Fold these 2 entries.
Entry 1:
Amino acid sequence: MNDLLFDVGANLAKIIILTHTVLVLAAYMPWVERKVSAWIQDRVGPNRVGWAGLLQPIADTLKFIFKEDVVPGHVNKVLYILAPCLAVIPSLFVLAVIPFGPSVSVLGRTVDLVIADLGVGILFVFAFSSLAVYGITFAGWASNSKYPLLGGVRSSAQMISYEICLGLSVVGIFMGAESLRLLDVVHQQVDGTWNLFTQPLGFLVFVIAAFAETNRLPFDLPEAETELVAGYHTEYSSIKFTLFFAGEYAAMFVFAALVAVLFLGGWDVPFMDNASFAALGNWGALLGFGSFLAKCLLFLLFYVWVRFTLPRFRFDQLMSLGWKVLLPIGLVNILVTGLLNLPDGAA
Amino acid sequence: MALVVERRKLNFWEELYLPAIAQGLAQTFRQMFKPAITLQYPEQRPVIADDYRGAPGLVKDQDGREKCVSCQLCEYICPPKAIVIVPGEAPAGGPFDYSNIEKAPREFYIDMLRCIYCGYCEEICPEQAIFMTREYELNAATRQELVHDKARLYQIGGTRQDPIQKWKHKDDGRPGAGGAGAH
């Protein structure tokens, strides 16, 4: 009975910590985005609400909540309301399998800092992150209006194409780790080298595909303001629009976390291995969590930096990049990794 | 004849596009540390040129006399018909009972929602009574507030030095003339 209580408590604590970290980050990412874009464009950015505009996200959210929630008469009501929920939930589910720190010891028991330590971790990630496309496609379809429909169609084509590259790019890692558990992947990197250095091609393909999966520039064709008004969320207002917004930022965080876990050594700090983390005890766990969060934040900044550097792709360019460039690179990467990792005596 | 632009064949590194992307990222990174050129508006003000054409206003001379004689030329020339003048007689008696002035505006309205800031009213005014000021902040909660009446127009225009004061000195130095106020 005590064990059960402890497990429930520990898991609840992990869920609360991780989801709140992500939701607060999702609320503050628009502020970061506006600030960084302002710096790049020689402007100041939000600086009126609170110190350096830090209360801006709260003001924005309040504004969104108090706006009229219009449900146009021509929409398919069920899908229209379901779509924004589907845009947020898959990203939050994926968080469940992401290890965010070394294990801590509480009341004499060891707790791994991952909500659900699944043996098929990475498959779970791809299964759920693929569901996010339904949110966008449903939104486009249910809006019953031309620009959202175009956005939804683009989104489904784009997500399906890049999902494959995403999957292929990480196969090399799991060949090296000989496990699909994300915890194993991190432990292997903490003791050895980061996968960024052993799998540079995989990293490149994964990052490009991650940009496409999160609909971020240069691959933001589903919303492409200049062509499609606002794409799939044209007909949405008030809190439903906010959910799409939050969903996009939550997805960005999830992919940043995945990049950190798969390629940047998770919670690893240079010159430390699993033993030295264990030696520091719970302080080591805190250090690891900080390191993991720092990597995520850096990658989130990279998203913003790229957004204000590169122009949007044309749709045919997007497709040809996905199928004719990234897919072959992903396949070659698997082949080369396989050849280099042949068991002794097989060659 | 069609102009054919020779396009150089890209070499391997250029075809990868990655070096170009890195260059772009470096450019935007450098840009992040340049000072912002933003003017923090309500606290900092832009420099307004002397000949800026802001809201038109009516002026009084140094004696406090309203210079408009209600000739309605500005009303006539105004392209968007923003000006409406209700002419009246110049008040008899008082400090400004100059002999040759017959009219003064009873009401003077400029609809700032119609005004196009062309400055024709200032140009055509034979009395130098209306000027384009440097006032550029016109806000109101209602449309009616932006139809400036006489009081508001004088508030905007204020007082201008008039070195000539032609009506005051019209009869000065002429034989038989009694100066201001003499009929």
Entry 2:
Amino acid sequence: MTLLSSWGRLGTHMHRIVGLTDPARVAPLIGAGQGPGLARGMGRSYGDACLNPEGTLWLTEGLDRFVSFDEQSGRLVCNAGVLLRDIQQLSVPRGWILPVTPGTQMVTVGGAIANDVHGKNHHLLGTFGDHVLRLKLIRTDGEVIECSPTQRPEWFAATVGGLGLTGVIVEAEIQLRRVAGPWLDTEIVPYANLEEFFHLADATEADWEHSVSWVDCITGDGGRGLFMRANPAPAQACPEPRRRQLTVPVVPPFSLVNKLSVLPFNTAYYRLKKWKAGRSLAHYEPFLYPLDNLHEWNRLYGPKGFFQYQSVVPREVGREAVQSMLREVARHGEGSFLAVLKTFSERPAVGMLSFPRAGVTLTLDLPNKGERTSALLGRLDALVQEAGGRLYPAKDARMPRTLFESGYPRLNEFLKYRDPNISSGLSRRLMGS
Amino acid sequence: MSSTKKIVIVGATSAIAEHCARLWVQREAAEMVLVGRDAARLASVSADLKVRSPQSSFRFLCTDFLDSTAIQATVDAVGAAGAPDIVLIAHGALPDQGECQESLAACRDALMLNGVSPALFAEAFAEAMHKVGRGTIVLIGSVAGDRGRKSNYVYGSAKGMVSRYAQGLQHRFAGSSVKVVLLKPGPTDTPMTAHLKTQGAKLASVESVAAQIVAAIERGRPVAYVPGKWRLIMQIIRHLPAFVFNKLNI
């Protein structure tokens, strides 16, 4: 038995570990049946979607082989444990890029599908699942299910965003996107309040591929922030930047993200970026994955870990709801360094449990201060529920079941596709088994 | 050298070997021969490498690691296409010490696979390299081979044999253009050690171990510990007097 936690480091739990390395040998290993298991990739889910306390975890990091790549069509076939980073490093020099990636590329293909992750270009390109042409799922009873948007589409819709609960994804075919090179034309536009944010978001959607904004949620309730947007740039002659990798070496005895640090940090960050506002050329890595060069940054939140809280609320009520949430966070006084605001487009979701829906999404990182934090999150839940919104299961460790059920109307349809011998901390908490 | 490098990897489906192969082909196109026991797994390793390096060429050969005739035939088949520049001999399996103590057959298999078989491959390739007067033979030993200890002396003694064999080859080829490199990895996070991880041991990542191995081969150091800290640790363990060592539960 091994102690493992998730990215939020909220607690460690005993797990039986089984390493998967060969797609052909997955079926006997997951069928061996010592109670329910769960596939786990890089463990970047913040809450309990990647945990199966007291149960088995099938680690997929060893399923890390490419199968084929057609440089003419941009179709890539690979095992589910391949990292998005490895795909980018392979394909970008050959003129292809993953159409959709989340804020870190240190996740597996299987994890990206199971959480139907989105990125800064959701308004144009949707979620990761929108670009999966086909996937191969192995059930614990040995059944192999090949599915795609047209072949057994119900299995595809259940598995994309299905939190790993429909079977073990072992292989996927992904459609990559043409790209001239690794460079992006970026622009930073400071904004003073949420009204300006929504104006900027609307003005940006048509002409910019990537958009995201950092919002300062500690100074009053103004909602000032920095709007960052980018488009792929033509090929450049300049050399690629050197990667400087740092690691947070230890878990500090208390959260370094706290009342004393967040105010000066947020102010400095805002002023510095405001000063550097305007256009510039950036490599895709620091723009899309700003924290990937700071390994184990989750340790900064100290031994009690942190909550990431990501909600999406419909656009009609978006402004009021976001304003109220930011006000709650400001009143709470602990602040959040990472507060990200982004609009999602009307695009219908691929998966039954996919998180993105039309509206505005707010992401907050909050150090775990026990009761105080729970109370704040409870107040945020009420605002999300009232607005008719939902929370992102990949980030969640504690949402009430009622909020999950109201946020995901296709839940009952999804449950029919669950594998009875797969279970996670999250599924037991929110689906009863 | 102008032509593409010819690299042979014995035990190509081992995690460390596979990661070394990835690093090599990412750096420059190579002519690679992958030797292993399981054709399906060799095919998937080879397909993966081909995606990573379409300019490289890959061939895989299945053989019996315990049969000296098969080993010689494999080495001859490899050599027919030209003498290799680098041969990485990486196969092995971590046996269960308790099982080896209970079953002589298990003990023999572990000694053969981890000790005798790599030595036979090395000997056969050494002869081929001796003829052309150049090449590098890389053997994967282990920190476990530096001093026998109760928890895994069967594996340790086989790896100790690999060390001594490499030492002998180094002596034989001293002053020539044939190089022999012995690598001694510490516990590494691979399928072979999955059960150690379950016991909560701290293991080095296979990516970083492979990167250090490739660098050590490039530098042509006769013996390299990976990660480097194991040189110091093993120096201490080797020099502990028996009355202290025998009290340790390792």
